[in-house]
């Protein structure tokens, strides 16, 4: 599933290509992708003819801020892609292309989603936060050590807390593994047990790992691509994720994998306490 670094990479590409352009039309070929409205016509009618004022990200969601103060939201799900098509580099619609945003003159954004867990919907800027129900953004300046301290005052395992979108927005399975290794924290540890230097290391690791992944254009293990169809390359720098049995880069202890609630957790049993 695309996480914060992948979605942020897509956002930056969309900001370069669609900001200030008018939506000529939207085609939605898979009705179930519109799950929060009575019909796809509501999304199409409210977005058609509107100018994209800006493109933002909130957690793992992409936000097209329209001149009408409506917000067109795409959630990528497990396999969602947003691809930019131009007359110079045209992309053809295939059976996995469920939404097309047409800007005219051959410029289009194609939303592809093989597993069909993604969605598109509309809300207003006024109701955006109430609709999304997401926690703090971990790369914003107001994500301070004190904020993290408040968030971690919980009895849940720290791995689960990092992936809780209502606590911290945008972190999933890949980056929670990588962050916890960088901070030297065992994923099973209860969040409220983190104190002092350990909490400081976690705060630093969240910023450094996410920014490192963004610099790599994200992590391409399967379907993820940026809007120009390019893969990310953070997967070449994994510390622990999907490295079961490989030697730890710090101590040579084999990386361990456990499965919890259908998800694989990776960690170094020596370096992470």
Gist of the model:
The chain has 273 residues and is an alpha+beta fold. The chain has helices spanning 4-18, 40-47, 128-132, 145-151, 158-162, 173-183, 196-215; strands spanning 25-28, 52-58, 61-66, 70-75, 80-85, 97-104, 107-113, 119-124, 256-260, 263-267.
pLDDT under 50 segments (min length 5)? none
Largest sheet composition: 4 strands, antiparallel
* Strand content range: 15-25%
- Major sheet: order of its strands? 1-6-7-5
| Secondary-structure element string | HEHEEEEEEEHHHHHEE
**Helical run tally:** 7
The CATH architecture name of the largest domain reads Alpha-Beta Barrel
Return the average pLDDT rounded to an integer: 97
CATH topology of the largest domain: N-terminal domain of MutM-like DNA repair proteins
- The geometry reads as globular
Distance between the termini: 27 Å
Number of E-state strands: 10
As for the number of domains, it is 2
Helix content: 25-40%
The level 1 CATH classification of the largest domain is Alpha Beta
Output the structural class.
alpha+beta
Rg measurement, Å: 20 Å
